[in-house]
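Issue: copy button drops trailing tokens. Both records pasted manually instead:
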Amino acid sequence: MVLKVFFPSCCSSAESGILIGRWISEQNSAVILAVVHFPFIPVQVKQYLSEVQRVTKVSVSVLGSWSHSKQEKEESLSEFLEDLGTIFSHEPWIQISKEGGSKFWSCSTLQKHSNNPKEEEIILVYYDQRKVMLSHLHPPLDTGTSTDHKADDASKLSAIFDTVAKSKILFMTDRYDDGPIKLTHWQSDGVEASIIVELMKQASVPACMLLTFLLSLISGICRSRVLKFWPLSFLWSKLSTCEQLGHRLQHLQVLSSNKKAETQTQLMRKANIFVSLLIDVALGILLMSWLYRKNRIGHLADTLIPMADHVAEELQDLLQWLMGAPAGLKMNRALDQVLGRFFLYHIHLWISYIHLMSPFIEMILWYVGLSACLGLTVALCILSDIIALLTFHIYCFYVYGARLYCLKIYGLSSLWRLFRGKKWNVLRQRVDSCSYDLDQLFIGTLLFTILLFLLPTTALYYLVFTLLRLLVVVVQGLIHLLVDLIDSLPLYSIILRLCRSYRLAG
């Protein structure tokens, strides 16, 4: 019968000792988990394995011996390793040896208690214990699984992965000194890093508690009744900066939660949020450091006022063009002059407002630049709100033109129903027949004619201001698209896919 021995690659350079792992009788396989080095006391090894077996519910035992002689093989060491089979009674006793300067291994079995010892063909499977442990290829641990289902599972390769996964307590290293029992496994080379990780875990507990308290305090303030009054609630719903701060507040609450991630999906979600937040803050700090060098904020404030004046002059030229004969179109001169002067007066008010705020713009930009330390997304949202404020007159023009155009379309549709002897029934929400007298038809004809001939002038203003509003919305949409990309892009999963794809194998 073929005997399969799964040997971890991290133990190939380990010193001589004994092999501990799990024996799977259904597969006639041995899964080696670690190597215990000399010197050791057999009683302490048995106590340690019984404790591991009690915690992991895996039948971990001593399966054989490992000999790694860096010089010529000594007879005393070989005899000593064979005698260990009498202390740790396991059938078969696996003996694996490797010479220091040789690439060939020697693997054999020893059956002392068998009456008819048979030579077995041995297949040595060399596996990466670290990748098997971190790839999550093993099935989920379900305590309610029946014994029949477990017996069927034991005939599959998943039993190997399940053995390594359940033996996680065996690989945990949080002390520099292993104690009386020294092991070699996939975390043996990173003892210092494991200790640092454990120290960081201990230090993160009070930090998370403090962050949770601050976040709960901020959330309580945001949910208070003071912010539900009309001006504050309106600003909170319209400003994208407030929306982004609320979004980041939810992310921080997820990260600072003391509830452990139960599934791999929850763990990956937390990791993606953490990496996204970290990169966001790093990019924000880089932006803030760039803004405060060489007085770039002052230069930006100096160019902002001329830019606003240039936009206002372009709008004035556009309105002057519309008040004439735009593209050779014949417009209603009286309505054209009224609308043009109305919008020109709004531009004049806007220029006066910008020049009134010009002494404070540099100071405002200086304090706005400090918000970049909260993240690049917050700075981009503030930029979107600034664009909305600087183009507020364009928004007003669009609203005026849209309302006027909609009123004329609504009036024309009502008068058109009057010509056909119809009317809109408000109670039943339908069009009913109606009889009109001569005076009503005459007045309706006059109003329909007036609205119809005034419609091209109104439609042209509405079209021009809709295109201007659409341009502003496209710019803001690109900014919000970048913000959503930073918020929702699973950067941690992409990095794992590129660097350590085996971590996403499950």
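Record 2 (pasted manually too):
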Amino acid sequence: MRPPLRNPINVNAMTRKIDVDDRIPLRNYYRIADNLLKQANIYREEKNIVDLYVILLRYSSLVLDTIKFHRDYNVLCSKERAYCKKQLLVVVAELESLKPDFLRQVDRLNRGHTRSENDQPNGQLPAVNNRVTFDSRNRQYHNVQNRLSWNQHSGITQNKQSSSIDMQFQKLSLLPPPRQETLSRHSLLGPNGLRGQWSNPSTQTKVQYPAYTDLNSSDNLSLFQTVQTDNTGVKDSNTGVDTSTMDSVLSLDDGRWSRLTEDQFDDDLFLSGNIRQPSPPPVLARLQPEHSHIPPSQVADPRPGPANSFQDDTPTSNTYHHLHIPVKMMQDFLRVAHENTKRNLETCGVLAGSLKNRNFQITTLIIPKQESTSDSCQTLNEEDIFEVQDKRSLFPLGWIHTHPSQSCFMSSVDLHTHYSYQIMLPEAIAIVMAPTDESSPHGIFHLSDPAGVNLIRKCDQRGFHPHEEPDDGSPIYEHCSHVYLNETLKFDVVDLR
């Protein structure tokens, strides 16, 4: 018999839509889908109906609401696209069969929550110890008590649960046709085709030609780049503005080039073919507006926020499975990084592990090939990392890196790096080892969700830069509250350098 839940189960919050981010390669989204199916297999073997149902709903939402809106969806990863479509049919069928049992279990768990709340004096819930501990009894109690607590509203009835699930199935059963916006992006003549008005280049837009080192794999593979300018729309031809001709479109004429009069026109020059045509812009050129200055009073605090307590009832869309870290792993990583640390160079590693009884466990520390400076570290040959994870059937659980001569915090570059890990798996963590920081030699962090995740998703700056404080005043990143140091957990080190 399970102890009652702290919050009633909210299916909508637990299966919320993941907004697509075109900066993340499409193949990474397919890896997220594979990880969800891997989790589903584990829950199925453990006969965990509630988590199985939720993870299948999340898979269907990822395939229908996220992946298909990636800019490279129709041009890359054709095998993965076909596989996901095939798996989606299987997932929908299983959801249908699981739905009655899922509703019964949710109703029973929610009734237990209501009884527990009524038994407390003044409606207060019992205090829960949130400290990192090795006490297995406390961990077991926390595991069950916080099960599926991605709740933003209290008092959800079974009718509301059934209604929200019906809406999920309606979404699964309707595959909408491509939007006009989607079709227009694939037009060689631009978003408005032959009927649009040619717009002059905006003088308020900065043309930034990226260096080779700035181009990631996603940029190289993408065939279409979305260009945002200050033009808010296209006027109709009836407004008095002359519509562009095919000549001006094909010649890239912006209307400001000098025109040759009849007496200036030289037939010999024309016939000789020496007329110099304008060169097209580089394919990978990006048009980006200038980044606005952030007032000092609005710059986010670079220090981490405190860990969210299990007792905290602040509405959130996430609850995390517990994640166990081998105590000796961090010290072993410092030994691996020792030579780099002596030369004031950062070292990074990838954390991977398994899932059992709703607990993630870090079982493998992967040291990839990398390039380092005193304040940055870049992994190389990402495919080698994926190969190790796939062969051992491991989940990506985060990353670890050193600050050889700096304090223990996460820089703006670190925040953007960790964003890609946390998108892959919400429980993913970032461990910072700062051997020279006597007050805080190590820290275990993650982005606050949703504030920190949304802020980094919308930030298109690179390198070291300040971030604006989230609108709700919450920190961008914080200490983890779902992590436990485990003295008995064993791990392997895979050095790919």
